[in-house]
Amino acid sequence: MTKANIDLQLSSEVRAARDAGQAVVALESTIITHGMPHPQNVEVARQVEQDIRDAGAIPATIAILEGRLHIGLEDHELEQLGQAQGVAKLSRADLAACLAAGGTGSTTVAATMIAANLAGIEVFATGGIGGVHQGAETSFDISADLQELAQTPVTVVAAGAKAILDVPKTLEVLETLGVPVIAHGQDAFPAFWSAESELMAPLRMDSADAIARAHAMRRALGLPGGQLVANPIPVADQIPSDELAPIIAQAQADAVTHRIAGKAVTPYLLQRIYERTEGRSLTANIALVRNNARLAAEIALALSR
Ligand code: PSU
Ligand code: MN
Known about the structure:
It is a single chain. The chain has 13 helices and 11 strands. By secondary structure, it is an alpha/beta fold. The protein has 2 domains: 1-121, Indigoidine synthase domain (Indigoidine synthase fold, 3-Layer(aba) Sandwich); 125-305, Indigoidine synthase domain (Indigoidine synthase fold). Strands 1, 2, 3, 4, 5, 6, 7, 8, 9, 10 and 11 form an 11-stranded mixed sheet that branches. Helix 3 (40-54) packs antiparallel against helix 4 (75-83). The site of manganese (II) ion (MN) has 3 residues, from loops.
């Protein structure tokens, strides 16, 4: 299943899955190191892995540990990464430098897609993707995740885009890049903490099978790039957007005041929102990641049939 010219470090579980031809779902690690506080980050990472197993697929959490690209982490590696301080956040631009220098880092959506593709894994579950930030017309802050979706053939299941992003501009860029944006089971594009935004998703699919067929058809057409599946948060776990709007606005103002830039922006905003919601943002985040993991497992199973 591997396309890489470097040694991939497969976990024992992923190695067995490959030998048995089982469905595998990739998971990112920036959500562990930069998206959630310890120890919940490790608990959630374990829980999400278990959700994938319960759904009949095998999880592969991706990270670089001491210069080796890991496809699947053993439990002690997950714990170490989740506890470590100052871990590098690796996107497309950082991957090779980190590997060449023998470094350690967690992978963003973009870097996880690259690694998953090298390992022959076609489906990936996360919480939220990066996108076009509010104020991008002056900051030029547009996540490398969008460009990656345009060029690497992995289907990414996320809960839509957070309001820390400019969601209409994010959808416009995805359209320009030719990335299919598929709402699962509804017409509206989901807004991360809320099941629905006011925006319509460009595409709607109601089953994992349909999403898997579309993925396979893109491959048959020889189209580069993946699909973004926008899976709404379960309604019981939503946070009303009017409650979050002032908190997000304050976090963004703080980021400007403190001159946060580059790859520090997204982790900074997530941390501020966590503090100001007294952890409620995290509870919702956990619910939606688990929900995405289950759908991703179903898609991976459908693809493997
Ligand atoms: N959005 C979230 N949670 C996250 C991230 C984004 O709601 O943890 C992480 C993902 O790893 C994503 C990355 O790929 O942040 C995007 O960072 P940037 O905006 O710097 O590209
Ligand atoms: Mn950015």
